[in-house]
Amino acid sequence: MMKNIPISFEFFPPKTADGIANLRKTREKLSVFKPEFFSVTFGAGGSTRDRTMETVFEMQAEGYNAAPHISCISSSKEEILELLVSYKKQGIKRLVALRGDVPSGLVSAGDFKYAAELVSFIRQETGDWFHLEVAAYPEVHPEARSAAKDLNSFKNKIDVGANSAITQYFYNADAYFKFVDDCIKLGINVPIVPGIMPIYNYTQLARFSDACGAEIPRWLRMRLEAYADDLPSLRAFGADVVSDLCSRLLSEGVPSLHFYTLNQAGVISNIINNVSSDFKT
Ligand SMILES: Cc1cc2nc3c(=O)[nH]c(=O)nc-3n(C[C@H](O)[C@H](O)[C@H](O)COP(=O)(O)OP(=O)(O)OC[C@H]3O[C@@H](n4cnc5c(N)ncnc54)[C@H](O)[C@@H]3O)c2cc1C
């Protein structure tokens, strides 16, 4: 909890024994913040299917609420149904339902073209069993033909049964608040939770942001570039920037915060501690 609002953390499913051990330590460290749930990403096309499932079940066995991501691109209905049945049988109650990014060398597009079709299918097959999260894009999804069309696509996911949304990360709080205002005007009244990306490494962040359409404001790019290989200073500066972002989001009102952890606890713990102390005074 942070300022009495729930928080959640996102992980990727590790590949190696070291990665598995590291993730165990990371979630133990982050559990002190009493997260509402931990989520685990899913490689498009099912590339991490088993690892996502194993990671989620391990967390659940440790007593955490665990939410697997499911992406539908290049999967068949049968494959998705099999996953849903396994998760339901295991008592998983929350899913993050996505289209997924088109993997390179994709052979088959699968049975679903957009996330809304996946949401609809999950509702059709499992009723209200799952709480369904979907993705939202305050700075507009990179493939969208226009901001208005993207907003309508988002509305469609809610109309067919999603319960809440987590946003792509952003460093411009105004983009988030404007997006939420536009959603309210369209009659969308589900919680839209900001996705928060801590800053670990400039090159990686810049590459990822260019691909997913998240803007790094010019002033921030220039400041981060100047740290070059001085990672400790970059991370300290990045933690200040992201703490300020979280403080602003919390002071203007958000339903929750979702942290993209990249399976690391240190920077995020600093951010949460910074923000918690801001709100004690
Ligand atoms: C919180 C979060 C978690 C994520 N986790 C994962 C993960 O675990 N694995 C992974 O592979 N990816 C993940 N992603 C990335 C996501 O899969 C990509 O951003 C993907 O490109 C879009 O997925 P979506 O579910 O938003 O797709 P959609 O909602 O289907 O939208 C995709 C694009 O299609 C457009 N669109 C939608 N419907 C229509 C329509 N009917 N006609 C025309 N255009 C339409 C939208 O405007 C958008 O441009 C995550 C993203 C977020 C924000």
Written description of the protein model:
With 281 residues, the protein is of the alpha/beta class. It contains ten helices and nine strands. The protein has helices spanning 17-30, 49-61, 77-89, 115-126, 147-159, 173-185, 202-212, 218-226, 231-252, 266-280; strands at residues 7-11, 37-40, 66-71, 94-98, 131-136, 164-167, 192-193, 195-196, 257-260. The chain has a nine-stranded parallel beta sheet with strand order 7-6-5-4-3-2-1-9-8. Helix 4 packs parallel to helix 5. The longest helix has 22 residues, at 231-252. The two termini are 17 Å apart. It binds flavin-adenine dinucleotide (FAD). Flavin-adenine dinucleotide is lined by residues 41-42, 44, 69, 71, 96, 98-101, 114-116, 135, 141, 143-144, 149-150, 153, 157, 166, 168, 195.
